[in-house]
């Protein structure tokens, strides 16, 4: 277990004008003065708040810097208070600790913040069942370091259910990552790209597994091209017939992936057997060092057909089980990741500490709304 933390940034003054009126959403606003607002925060004592007047509805409103709301305490103070409470500190101990850090907060406010955060999370928590989980990973650069972040979405609605920093990419790690989602939400299907670690996780968690057909098609197209190029070099002009057959087979393979017919599995199996003549690369010893020969074009075709033969049921799960309501792609996850890139800066505060391995440990951060600063902590008792 580990802690993943994102502490909301708090700015001393607003960096942007509001895009529209808070009340009527019209875009035409006039500046209407600024004021200083004292805040309870361990780094800032006060912030600048700008006021705007809407030209359409004539109402005025305050525009706060990032991390500041109409509360006395900053969002990061709210998060720290909630976190301390979630970690098992009493309200008065949390209040005392925050005071020592320079953010005076009464114990009743600690209690209220923790209750509100819990309430907000319960509201935001995916209610009830999520049948289809979409999962995908992406790499973010956080303070110059590459960090792999896994995303889980509701495959039906596209809603982000959560994300987590992944320290390892094997099947076991993926299983641990996806387990709480699968169990708490009662998921039945996992939709992913063809990374084999997902296959392991899905099998261990007892989930149906749909491979994203768009990924598989792209992958096979790429492999086809490379296998053909290699065959051309290896076989030369003497093996024209053999080359033509390979070209024809690869074309048929791609055609099967377009149409996804039920009998595709048999056809690919048959095709696979026609390449059993191709031998695996031999190990060889060269100047005392053991190396492996490069796989031949024929052998690569043998392996490609084997892989697709085995994965065929996962490639057309959406057709075999229309009742699951799958579209056969993992587009929902990719869209969620696309959106998150825009929000990437909210991850700057990320910290991890694997040393804290007991007790209440998994904190996970979920968006509480559309605003990019709207992050809330989820503190789960282990
Ligand atoms: Zn207005």
- Report the radius of gyration as a whole number of Å: 27 Å
Total number of distinct structural domains: 3
User: How much strand?
Assistant: 15-25%
How many helices in DSSP terms?
11
Major beta sheet summary: 5 strands, mixed
For the largest sheet, list the strands in their spatial order: 7-6-5-8-9
Cα separation of the termini: 9 Å
Structural class by helix and strand composition: alpha+beta
Q: Bound compounds, please?
A: zinc ion
Assembly type of the shown chains?
single chain
The residue fraction in helices comes out at 40-55%
The succession of helices and strands, N to C, reads: EEEEHHHEEEHEHEHHHEEHHHEEE
| Average pLDDT | 81
**Shape estimate:** elongated
User: Any low-confidence stretches, pLDDT <50, length ≥5?
Assistant: 341-382
Number of strands: 14
Q: What descriptors fit this protein?
A:
about 375 residues, alpha+beta, Nucleotidyltransferase, domain 5, 3 domains, 5-stranded mixed β-sheet, 3-stranded antiparallel β-sheet, 11 helices, about 20% strand, disordered C terminus, binds zinc ion
């Amino acid at each position: 277990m580990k802690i993943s933390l994102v502490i909301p940034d708090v700015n001393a003054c607003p960096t942007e004008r509001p895009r529209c009126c808070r009340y009527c959403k019209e875009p035409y606003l006039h500046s209407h003065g600024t004021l200083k607002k004292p805040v309870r925060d361990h780094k800032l004592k006060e912030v600048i708040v700008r006021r705007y007047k809407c030209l359409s509805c004539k109402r005025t409103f305050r525009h706060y810097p990032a991390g500041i709301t109409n509360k006395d305490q900053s969002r990061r103070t709210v998060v720290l208070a909630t976190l301390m409470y979630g970690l098992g500190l009493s309200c008065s101990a949390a209040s005392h600790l925050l005071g020592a850090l320079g953010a005076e907060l009464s114990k009743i406010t600690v209690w209220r913040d923790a209750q509100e955060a819990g309430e907000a999370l319960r509201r935001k928590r995916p209610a009830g069942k999520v049948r289809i989980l979409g999962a995908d990973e992406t790499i973010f650069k956080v303070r110059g370091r590459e960090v792999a972040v896994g995303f889980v979405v509701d495959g039906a609605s596209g809603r982000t259910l959560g994300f987590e920093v992944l320290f390892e990419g094997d099947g076991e790690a993926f299983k641990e990552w996806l387990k709480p989602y699968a169990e708490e939400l009662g998921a039945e299907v996992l939709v992913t790209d063809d990374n084999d670690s997902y296959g392991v996780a899905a099998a261990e968690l007892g989930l149906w597994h749909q491979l994203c057909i768009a990924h598989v098609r792209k992958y096979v197209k790429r492999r086809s091209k490379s296998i053909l190029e290699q065959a051309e070099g290896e076989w030369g002009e003497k093996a024209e017939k053999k080359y033509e057959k390979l070209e024809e087979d690869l074309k048929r393979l791609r055609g099967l992936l377009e149409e996804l017919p039920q009998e595709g599995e048999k056809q690919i199996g048959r095709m696979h057997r026609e390449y059993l003549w191709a031998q695996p690369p031999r190990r060889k010893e060269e100047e005392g060092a053991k190396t492996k020969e490069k796989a031949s074009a024929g052998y690569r075709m043998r392996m490609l057909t084997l892989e697709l033969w085995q994965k065929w049921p996962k490639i057309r799960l959406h057709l075999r089980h229309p009742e699951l309501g799958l579209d056969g792609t993992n587009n929902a996850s990719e869209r969620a990741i696309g959106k998150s890139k825009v929000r990437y800066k909210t991850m700057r505060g990320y910290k991890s500490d694997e040393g804290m391995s007991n007790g209440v440990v998994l904190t996970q951060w979920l968006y509480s709304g559309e605003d990019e600063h709207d992050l809330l902590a989820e503190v789960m008792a282990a």
